[in-house]
Every structure is written in structure tokens, then in C-alpha cells.
Model the fold of this input.
Amino acid sequence: MIPKALIEKLQSSQHLVIFTGAGVSSESGIPTFRDALTGLWKNYDAETLASEFGFLADPALVWGWYEGRRIRVMQSQPNPAHFTIAQLARQVPKLTLVTQNVDDLHERAGSHDVLHLHGSLHQPRCWVCAETYTLPDEPLPDQPIDLNSRITPPRCPHCDGVIRPGVVWFGEALPTQAWQLA
Ligand SMILES: [Zn+2]
Done:
């Protein structure tokens, strides 16, 4: 039951800011970062899988882990919370959606200009020249892929540098544009 005061506030609001985190996607079956660190990965600390140091030490281990998470997201669907936020944006003069999530479920529910403070699983980039890398459009596997699959990261078509996940790692700055707009 939504309190009447909140409904009135929403009805009169001129600019609404919504800030989401892992909770909004967990209903879609997306494990949180910590949840994803289970199984074999309990032998690795978070920094190994989420730092420049860890990536340089073993790119295939880290790339495979993020690919597993990305495929899992693509096999999942937005839930009513994602759809409600997208719908709300059509009811108020202005809505800014800021998320800590690295999935694309807000976009797939119809939200636009989502500010991804922690980057995105779906926008990897070149380690060397920072050019965005377009992942090949391949048919989705039926089952989630193992998060412990070692997968060699692709190479940049511009400079042959190694491609890294597009998420913000420990010790890295938040993406400047998303941060300023947020
Ligand atoms: Zn490059």
C-alpha cells in the first residue's frame, strides 16, 4: 500500500530522481556482486575479479567471470520494478534514473538515458585505447554459463589491445559524465 502523501508528492513532482542498486535486479534472478562470488570463486577475493591488478594477472579468468555474468543478464528479463520506473518517467515532467547496476534491465524495460555509475557489463572497452568494443551478436546458450569458465578476452580492432570489462573496478574513478549528471 503506497502512502497517500507519497502519491501526492509524486503527482506534484517536477523532477524525480530514482537511485537503484542490486535489489531492483535480484527479483530478475541477477545475483549481486557478492552472491556471484560463490562456488569456485570463494577462493578468490573480490579484488582479484574486480581490479586492474587482477585482470592483468589473469585476463582469461576475469573475462570469463564477467562473460558468465553478462550471459546471465541476457537470459533474464526485467521485472515489474524496472517497468514501473520506466512508466513513471512518462508521468512526471522529468525523471533521472541513476543506477549502481551493471546490467541493462532498466533499458530493456524502456528507460532512457540511464546513468550507470558503476559502468556496464554490456559495454567493454579497449584496455589500451579505451575505444568501446562491440560484442559479437551470438545466439544465447540455453543454460547459464559457468562463472568459472576461462575465456580469453577479444582484441581491439583498432590497436590490438586487450578488451576489458566495462565495469568500474576497485580503485577506479566513477565514469565522469555519469557521475556529474547524477
Ligand atoms: Zn584499442
Summary: The longest helix spans residues 59-74.
